[in-house]
Task: inverse folding
């Protein structure tokens, strides 16, 4: 069964928690600030969330999940892997079953946050690959496919045993935008075959799963066959989190849009997730930004969430009717 979750930070306010509760949501996806990764801080967050009947379903620390020292094989990567593993252990002790991983040492690549032709005069992420491909190297030199996969293997060998002992799964996000190389660094996950390679490298370990970012599948015309990929990865129980996001078109140019405005048939995608028994958490990923571009709009997030929840509940009700 799919569970809907809301995104928040470890510094979420009680007012925000109450608003999430008011939307009929029970689960949280938490971006944990570095100073909040200790056990006591996580337990305080869980206690506050519990006052509003909310449960932390999964979490990640951006500076650990997108750690250039780990991803690029820096001399001090063992120290950072140790920090990552310590956070995994904290999550396990706190009963939080999923830790985030995004092999993006420079984060996601976008051209700007602003208004465009397809985002109804709002501020959203806009990506123009023609501009991005003209940028200089991000890390001083190019990093090959072999290097990146060797670094990933090195990490898995040290992280998966900790995950198993802590009873915490890793949820691996694709590179965004999904192209072979960004800023001179070869992408780890830029199509669905890369996921298969990663799972094979991990020996099909149950502790390595994915964040299925629908937006990334839609941004590229060769990420994979989304319908078949949903069926396969649901069957293999590899989907811990679904990022439910639409875009105006495939690359080289796209804007992040309302769910109903992009080129992806989000109703059909939701039907497939339900039909194939997806058991992951479901969230909206990126709503629109505030007009000044400094943060995500809570009003926009509430609209996105209501639209997505309505779609999910309608499809689930229809499925129950067919099965009866």
Result:
């Amino acid at each position: 069964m799919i569970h809907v979750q809301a995104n928040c930070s470890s510094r979420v306010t009680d007012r925000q928690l109450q608003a999430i509760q008011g939307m009929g949501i029970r689960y949280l996806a938490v971006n944990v600030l570095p100073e909040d990764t200790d056990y006591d801080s996580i337990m305080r967050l869980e206690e506050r969330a519990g006052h509003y009947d909310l449960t932390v379903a999964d979490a990640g620390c951006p500076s650990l999940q997108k750690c250039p020292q780990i991803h690029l094989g820096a001399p001090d990567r063992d120290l950072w892997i140790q920090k990552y593993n310590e956070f995994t252990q904290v999550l396990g002790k706190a009963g939080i079953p999923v830790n985030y991983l995004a092999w993006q040492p420079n984060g996601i690549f976008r051209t700007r946050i602003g208004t465009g032709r397809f985002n109804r005069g709002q501020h959203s992420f806009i990506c123009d690959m023609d501009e991005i491909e003209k940028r200089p190297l991000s890390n001083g030199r190019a990093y090959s496919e072999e290097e990146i996969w060797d670094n990933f293997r090195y990490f898995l060998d040290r992280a998966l045993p900790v995950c198993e002992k802590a009873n915490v799964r890793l949820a691996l996000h694709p590179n965004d935008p999904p192209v072979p190389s960004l800023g001179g660094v070869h992408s780890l996950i830029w199509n669905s075959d890369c996921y298969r390679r990663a799972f094979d490298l991990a020996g099909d370990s149950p502790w390595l799963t994915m964040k299925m970012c629908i937006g990334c599948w839609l941004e590229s015309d060769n990420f994979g066959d989304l319908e078949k990929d949903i069926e396969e990865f649901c069957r293999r129980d590899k989907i811990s989190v679904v990022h439910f996001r639409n875009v105006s078109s495939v690359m080289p140019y796209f804007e992040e849009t309302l769910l109903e405005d992009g080129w992806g048939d989000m109703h059909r995608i939701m039907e497939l997730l339900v039909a194939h028994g997806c058991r992951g958490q479901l969230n909206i990923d990126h709503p629109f930004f505030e007009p000044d571009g400094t943060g995500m709009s809570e009003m926009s997030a509430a609209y996105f969430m209501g639209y997505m929840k309505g779609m999910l509940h309608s499809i689930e009700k229809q499925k129950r009717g067919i099965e009866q």
Observations:
- The radius of gyration is 19 Å.
- The chain has a mean pLDDT of 97.
- The first strand starts at residue 3 and ends at 9.
